[in-house]
Amino acid sequence: MIAIIKAQFNKPITDLLQDGCTKYLIEKNIPFKVFECPGAVEIVVYSKKLIATEQYKAIITIGAIIKGDTDHYEYVCQYVTNGISNLSCQTLTPIVFGILTVQNEELAYERASIQEMNKGKEFAETALFMIDAFDKIDNNQF
Question: Which of 72, 133, 135, 136 is the catalytic position?
Answer without folding.
Answer: 72
